[in-house]
Design goal:
Blueprint lengths: L13 E4 L7 H6 L4 E5 L4 H4 L2 H11 L3 E5 L8 H14 L3 E6 L1 H12 L7 H5 L11 E5 L11 E6 L4 E6 L7 E4 L9 H20 L5 H23 L4 H21 L3 H13 L3 H16 L4 H10 L8 H18 L16 H10 L1 H4 L7 H10 L2
Parallel strand pairs: 1-8, 2-3, 2-4, 4-5, 5-8
Antiparallel strand pairs: 6-7
Helix pairs in contact: 4-5, 7-8, 7-9, 7-11, 8-9, 10-11, 10-14, 11-13, 12-13, 14-16
The protein binds fe (ii) ion.
Fe (ii) ion binds next to α7 and α11.
Length: 385
């Protein structure tokens, strides 16, 4: 009998998944607090009617709501700082983060830092969070980031020009309510960007050096759901079963990569995102086929397994199957109108040097299946301009 490998798995929220589960928001929140700060974005939750629905559902269970709206895409530590003041002023004992990845990340950071008095930027720079925050309930309205289950929040510090994760157990939501209905109103481009982010996270989680037999179950299952539904939700956003598969895939990818970590796409996504100002998902989708090529030898077996899992090929030859996966992803990215080269994102040769140090320092890059050296990375970036 073979021995079992050592491994670590991060904590998970209580997860409530399925169409209609948003109706359970009030009952779950009432178990955690009585005054909720509802953190959300720039209006889509309000326009879709879900904001009022959530507030009245919380009210029916005795939970009062203060809304902190206006979280912008690619959010900053300043937004967290302002939101935390709002939480203190209103005396909230709970955060409900409802929206896309940005709203979830800001809500999680506010909740995790609620007990700390230092500036949010200090913790982003690495100061330890030592005091307990307030419980967090995460309600995603996109199927992309998996932020509802992960222990980190991606934030930009404008002053330092750094995009990085705030990480800690206090950022893990107590409850994640994943209701695919909430993603129905997401427009096609945002659906494509969120979906390819989720797919990238599933694949990077599956091929990461931190992957283990448990995370592989989650990321492999995620790949199947995401690959099977991504084209359908892009073309037909009203297709609820397809939305359900995307939401489940994104959730499963999040559970997997929270423990396994990611790879070079995500290591580069932060500097490319800062320089281009483009949405995270678009950046990830654009980089993915190139990174598969970069890693193809080092991760050949895993790529081949992924290709067979999602039905791209049944070729038993790993080299051929890994190549088939690269080709399938390339075609998908084209269909989703994501772009093919860094110049499609407005990045030029002059930007290459500035991306190298942050990409090499990223923990995602450190978990890439092929070791990434500085000369390799420079060559890679120049090739994909
Ligand atoms: Fe991502």
């Amino acid at each position: 009998m073979e021995s079992v490998e050592s491994m670590q798995l991060v904590a998970m929220p209580h997860i409530v998944f399925g169409t209609g589960t948003i109706k359970q928001a009030g009952q779950w929140c009432a178990q955690l607090g009585s005054k909720a700060l509802l953190v959300t974005g720039c209006g889509s939750l309000h326009r879709s009617g879900w904001l009022d629905e959530i507030i009245s559902n919380l009210g029916a269970h005795g939970v009062a709501t203060t809304v902190f709206a206006g979280v912008k895409p690619e959010p900053s530590v300043n937004t967290v700082q302002i939101g935390r003041s709002r939480l203190w002023e209103a005396g909230c004992d709970l955060v409900v983060a409802a929206g896309g990845g940005s709203s979830l990340d800001v809500g999680k950071a506010i909740g995790a830092l609620a007990g700390e008095s230092g500036d949010a930027a200090e913790y982003h720079r690495g100061r330890q969070i030592t005091k307990p925050g307030v419980p967090i309930v995460a309600v995603p309205t996109t199927s992309g980031t998996g932020s509802e289950v992960t222990p980190n929040a991606v934030l930009i510090d404008q002053e330092r020009g750094v995009k990085a994760s705030l990480r800690g157990d206090g950022l893990i939501p107590k409850v994640a309510i994943v209701d695919p209905q909430l993603t129905l109103t997401l427009p096609p481009a945002a659906t494509a960007f969120a979906g390819i982010d989720a797919f990238t996270q599933a694949l990077e989680g599956f091929t990461s050096t931190g992957a283990n037999l448990v995370t592989d179950k989650f990321t492999a299952e995620a790949l199947v759901h995401l690959a099977g539904a991504i084209r359908t939700v892009y073309r037909d956003g009203d297709n609820l079963p397809a939305r359900e598969h995307m939401s489940l895939g994104s959730l499963l990818a999040g559970i997997g990569f929270a423990s396994s970590r990611l790879g070079l796409v995500h290591g580069l996504a932060h500097p490319v995102g800062i320089i281009s100002g483009q949405p995270h998902g678009r950046v990830c989708g654009l980089l993915l086929p190139h990174v598969i090529d970069f890693n193809r030898e080092a991760a050949q077996e895993k790529y081949a397994q992924a290709a067979r899992l999602i039905g791209v090929t049944n070729d038993s030859d790993n080299e051929a199957a890994a190549l088939a996966l690269r080709d399938w992803v390339t075609e998908l990215v084209k269909e989703l109108r994501i772009g093919q080269s860094l110049s499609d994102l407005g990045i030029s040769k002059d930007d290459v040097e500035a991306m190298i140090a942050p990409a090499l320092a990223s923990s995602s890059t450190k978990h890439n299946p092929r070791k990434v050296t500085e000369p390799d990375l420079r060559r890679f970036l120049e090739q994909i301009l």
